[in-house]
Write a structure and sequence with these properties.
Blueprint: H1 3-16, E1 32-37, E2 43-51, E3 55-64, E4 71-86, E5 94-95, H2 96-99, E6 119-123, E7 126-141, E8 145-159, E9 162-171, E10 176-184, E11 197-199, E12 206-208, E13 210-220, E14 229-238, E15 245-252, E16 256-258, E17 267-277, E18 281-288, E19 309-313, H3 333-336, E20 348-358, E21 368-374, E22 376-380
Antiparallel strand pairs: 1-2, 2-3, 3-4, 4-5, 4-13, 6-7, 7-8, 8-9, 9-10, 10-21, 11-12, 13-20, 14-15, 14-17, 16-19, 17-18, 18-22, 19-20
């Protein structure tokens, strides 16, 4: 290679190189910075803290694909409420976050044995968070193949007979997966009316069924500007003869609640107004729902359970999907949307409700096997091509 060629090569390397992401990604970080670097060069940067009500809260979540710029995904995210209703109607709905909370004294202290092959992290003098990296199978496999990993953080909270594990999974390809796992012991055994439960013991004791509603709050702040995002709904609509599916894009321009439509494969994405790739479009993150089979659960016919997702413009006092303290805001997700604020170019908050009905089994009689509710946030057009 001649000197001119070497110079061009050096310039090319300089133009393609980006400074490594800092361990403290943003001055608005609330809590303890955490950083995960994958072997490929992909990086997650975020901060975590414990709140008395929500338990684990993330802030200033950034993702960096290999050889690309670091960009922010979320300003803040947490499980904002858990509501439980018994099938027999003998007890009022119980709102976990705002009644007792997932933090404070209900947060479990962890030992290394409870965090196998992981690292313990302390908050307020106690080890309460476990982080670890796990194999996650094929990132892709065709003429070539690549294995991938996932970085997970977890906290655990005990409330009476219930044991909750809050877990966030950070994938090498930019996917985020919030999840809540329920274990413990059956909260009600002894109701003799099998109409509302299931026999779970040799003496024919009946364990009452119940429904949990999990309400997530996701404050999206794509890239550097938190006030220029918008929402799109994407449907794949079958033609009349059901031989094709038409892609239908619809903007969600004002605050509202929306519902899943499995037949149309409905999902939503948060889109940045400025940053993108000329031939493709603007960067965005998809909200990929799961557990469609129970999405419509609303046995008590309350307003804030009528929809699966709610989209609102950011207000600091809107913290909980239900039973929100009404000092300067209204009480729940449905009420947040009633002033129909504009969402075009706004700081957008997504409230995602997942419902799960539990009909006990005899195998649950002494220990309930962990049951997970999860969903995914996936980058769309974050990169012009696959960076891996």
């Amino acid at each position: 290679m001649n000197k001119f060629g070497a110079l061009l090569c050096a310039v090319g390397l300089l133009l393609s190189w980006h400074a490594p992401a800092s361990a403290t990604p943003d001055t608005r970080c609330q809590g303890t910075p955490m950083r995960k670097v994958f072997g490929s060069g992909a990086v997650w940067n975020f901060c975590w803290r414990i709140e008395a009500k929500e338990g684990l809260v993330l802030s200033q979540v950034y993702y960096q694909a290999p050889s690309t710029l670091q960009r922010r995904v979320l300003g803040e995210a947490a499980l904002s409420q858990i509501e439980t209703r018994r099938d027999d109607g003998t007890a009022a709905a119980y709102l976990m976050d705002t009644t007792t909370g997932l933090g404070g004294s209900h947060l479990s202290s962890l030992t290394q044995a409870q965090c196998p092959q992981g690292t313990l992290h302390a908050f307020a003098g106690r080890n309460v968070l476990c982080s670890r990296t796990k194999k996650a199978g094929y990132l892709y496999k065709y003429t070539r193949q690549r294995q991938t990993e996932v970085f997970q953080i977890s906290t655990f909270a005990q409330r009476g007979p219930r044991h909750y594990q809050t877990r966030w999974s950070f994938y090498e390809n930019g996917t985020l997966e919030p999840a809540i796992g329920l274990s413990g012991i059956l909260p009600s055994v002894g109701n003799n009316d099998a109409q509302f439960g299931w026999p779970v013991a040799a003496n024919n004791q009946i364990a009452t069924g119940y429904t949990d509603h999990y309400l997530w709050r996701l404050d999206f702040d794509l890239d550097s500007n938190s006030n220029n995002d918008h929402i799109e709904e994407i449907n794949s609509v079958p033609t009349a003869d059901r031989t094709k599916k038409d892609k239908v894009l619809r903007p969600v321009s004002t605050e509202r609640g929306v519902s899943l439509n499995p037949d149309y494969k409905t999902f939503w994405r948060v889109v940045d107004a400025e940053v993108g790739h000329n031939a493709i479009g603007k960067i965005s993150y998809e909200i990929i729902p799961q557990h469609y089979d129970q999405s419509g659960a609303n046995s008590a016919n309350v307003d804030w359970l009528k929809h699966d997702l709610f989209f609102t413009a950011y207000r600091d006092c809107e913290r909980h999907g239900a039973n929100n303290p009404q000092n300067s805001c209204t009480g729940n997700m449905h009420a947040f949307t009633q002033d129909r604020q504009n969402l075009d170019g706004a700081d957008i908050v997504v409230w995602y409700k997942q419902s799960r009905h539990y009909l006990p089994r005899s195998e649950d009689s002494n220990r309930v096997a962990t049951r997970w509710n999860r969903f995914k946030l996936i980058p769309r057009d974050w990169n012009p091509t696959n960076p891996y």
